[in-house]
Structure to design on (686 residues):
């Protein structure tokens, strides 16, 4: 998953907000958390299309993509993200989905290829641990 | 009587950073001049409320936030809420409408009618308010960057009901500065956005005197992480930025200050919230009188909607939110709010179900009619603790306002991302305190129920069929309108947008021609451009917003 990165580089994460939803509190809390854990974080800002997110992930050569969704549209958006990553040959990225995600939707998200689902209230340390266990420095 | 365990007493520090003693007495308020700083309700500095008799004369307005799918469904929900005794409306728009996109715009896909009602043209507004006595109720439109267009649609719909503009009562949220800080429905850069607000204020002061053209929202700033003192301070600095713009246009402070409304949040410590509102009223009155030189007492009053904030609610054991909501309503009543809106118990994860909305409404009705909350104005006045805390919070609010002034005022502080940094950092600290247990949330980090694993919740179903219906309606309206008139109105709007002329007459003309929301917003996007989000997450490091965004 990380052969493209040199050993010295810090782990790099893209936090993305797709669509029109403006709830960015959770995304920003996660950004502060990951930065405190020593990672490089790039934030897309609000109102991105999935295409823009994938392009940024590619341009920035991130190891991890975390997409935050509160509008209820997490299933179609995540499906689109995973499809596009595969199409662009970027399916080596670790993908996390966060936000207002009902428990029952976690399995569906994983069936699209999402690696981790962290709904509102998810433990911040666990997010860090999850990433560090899967993307080795 | 020495207490050997005295130094083991749990320390209490409020979110705003104020240390609380276990007991308060007369010594704690000896420096407060009762006549000057507390006084009577309805009298300067309005610490105790903005009306002499407060709820004894008229209870707070009850205004639940609602709207979903299309105009027809929303119209039904409005009528149902009014039938249950709700006294005003608070309209939720879907995200495409909030961002000026028509329902057939590719960017709107999957969002049409999802979190509120979809509005594309005047036709939708007419239908949403069909059969509703809009001369008797006041309507609040939760709309920001395109508030000028939605207000125009509402005014024309009222006109079609035969209601003259002088009689139309309502509010557009229209607080763009807070959108850049939290909530996120911004489109245009700061300067033209504020110009639009100024156009609306100017137009309303001449033509729609009972309309509140903007409602300054501490609410969403608090929901995004700000402390209660920051919430109040940032809201005031935002209001000051608007006021300064409007004064520059030549209006006198007393011509519009009495129509400025505020929207505040309630969650967290009960006493801190109550004191926050009392302090806020006092400070605002002083600012308007002393700094802006208003002479009309109405201009000095902090008129507000205050309700239970969704941020205090939890997805864990959601029924507990009914109890939290009842306490928030109690706080709101003790705070002397004019209008109350309560987040429904399911609001932490969905838009309110009918059942949840009704429980919220009943909560407010029970407080007003059963519990004696409307008997006497500002019943907490004179409490050693409350008066001391009101004073302390006022000092904190002033401190945060000074910080904003040091950054060159609210417009600069938002453009640079300073406020966004302050707020998101507070959100991070708060979340860490929740996760460490330093701040208690019942059933979240204390008394966690084992049944939570099998939590069953009902979500508001998203009706994908409604989006198709909405697109069909839009096509029908477009086919049925006089396209020559639409083109002419849009061309005039574009021309005016490039000057400093007041845009309201042009927007009204375009609305009457059934120009779409997207067409009008598109013109503004062309002329004004779009806001670029500042690098706004960590004070320490850049880059945060990727290049090209």
């Amino acid at each position: 998953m990380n052969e493209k990165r040199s050993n010295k580089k810090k782990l790099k994460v893209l936090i993305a907000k797709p669509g029109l939803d403006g709830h960015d509190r959770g995304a920003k809390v996660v950004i502060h958390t990951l930065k405190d854990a020593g990672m490089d974080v790039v934030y897309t800002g609000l109102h991105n299309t999935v295409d823009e997110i994938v392009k940024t992930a590619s341009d920035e050569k991130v190891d991890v993509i975390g997409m935050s969704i509160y509008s209820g549209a997490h299933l179609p958006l995540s499906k689109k993200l995973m499809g596009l990553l595969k199409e662009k040959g970027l399916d080596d990225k670790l993908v996390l989905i966060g936000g207002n995600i009902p428990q029952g939707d976690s399995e569906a998200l994983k069936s699209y290829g999402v690696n981790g689902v962290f709904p509102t209230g998810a433990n911040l340390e666990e997010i860090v641990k999850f990433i560090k266990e899967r993307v080795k420095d | 009587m020495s207490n050997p365990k005295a130094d083991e007493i749990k320390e209490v520090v409020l979110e705003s950073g104020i240390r609380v003693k276990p007991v308060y007495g007369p010594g704690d308020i000896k420096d407060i001049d009762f006549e000057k700083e507390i006084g009577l309700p309805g009298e300067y500095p309005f610490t105790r409320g903005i009306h002499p008799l407060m709820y004894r004369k008229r209870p707070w307005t009850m205004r639940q936030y609602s709207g979903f799918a299309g105009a027809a469904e929303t119209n039904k929900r409005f009528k149902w809420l009014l039938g249950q005794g709700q006294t005003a409306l608070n309209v939720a728009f879907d995200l495409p409408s909030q961002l000026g996109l028509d329902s057939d715009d590719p960017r709107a896909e999957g969002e049409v009618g999802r979190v509120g009602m979809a509005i594309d043209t005047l036709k939708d507004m007419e239908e949403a308010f069909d059969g509703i006595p809009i001369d008797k109720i006041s309507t609040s439109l939760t709309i920001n960057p395109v508030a000028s267009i939605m207000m125009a649609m509402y005014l024309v719909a009222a006109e079609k009901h035969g209601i003259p503009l002088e009689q139309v009562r309502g509010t557009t949220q229209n607080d763009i500065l807070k959108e850049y800080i939290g909530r996120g429905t911004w489109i245009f850069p700061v300067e033209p956005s504020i110009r639009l607000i100024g156009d609306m204020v100017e137009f309303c002061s001449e033509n729609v005197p009972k309309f509140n053209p903007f409602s300054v929202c501490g609410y969403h700033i608090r929901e995004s992480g700000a402390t209660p003192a920051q919430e109040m301070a940032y809201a005031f600095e935002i209001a000051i930025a608007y006021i300064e713009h409007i004064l520059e246009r030549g209006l006198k402070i007393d011509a519009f200050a009495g129509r400025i409304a505020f929207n505040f949040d309630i969650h967290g410590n009960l006493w801190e919230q109550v004191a926050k509102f009392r302090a806020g009223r006092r400070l605002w009155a002083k600012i308007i009188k002393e700094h802006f030189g208003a002479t009309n007492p109405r201009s000095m009053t902090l008129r507000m909607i205050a309700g239970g904030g969704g941020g205090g609610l939890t997805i864990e054991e959601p029924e507990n939110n009914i109890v939290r909501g009842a306490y928030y309503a109690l706080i709101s009543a003790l705070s002397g709010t004019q209008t109350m809106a309560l987040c429904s118990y399911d609001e932490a994860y969905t838009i309110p179900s009918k059942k949840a909305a009704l429980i919220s409404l009943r909560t407010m009705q029970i407080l007003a009619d059963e519990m004696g909350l409307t008997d006497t104005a500002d019943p907490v006045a004179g409490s050693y603790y409350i008066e001391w805390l009101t004073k302390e919070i006022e000092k904190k609010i002033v401190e945060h306002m000074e910080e904003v002034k040091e950054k060159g005022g609210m417009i600069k502080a938002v453009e640079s991302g300073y406020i966004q940094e302050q707020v998101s950092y507070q959100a991070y600290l708060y979340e860490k305190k929740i996760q460490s247990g330093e701040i208690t949330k019942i059933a979240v980090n204390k008394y966690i129920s084992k049944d939570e694993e099998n939590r069953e919740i009902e979500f508001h179903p998203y009706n994908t069929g409604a989006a198709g219906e909405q697109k069909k309606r839009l096509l029908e309206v477009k086919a049925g309108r006089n396209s020559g008139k639409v083109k002419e109105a849009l061309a005039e709007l574009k021309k005016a947008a490039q000057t400093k002329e007041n845009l309201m007459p042009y927007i009204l003309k375009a609305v009457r021609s059934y120009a779409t929301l997207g067409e009008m917003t598109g013109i503004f996007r062309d002329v004004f451009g779009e806001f670029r989000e500042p690098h706004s997450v960590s004070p320490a490091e850049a880059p945060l917003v990727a290049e090209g965004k």
User: Anything to note?
Assistant: Residues 19-62+173-448 of chain B form a domain with the TIM Barrel fold (CATH 3.20.20.240).
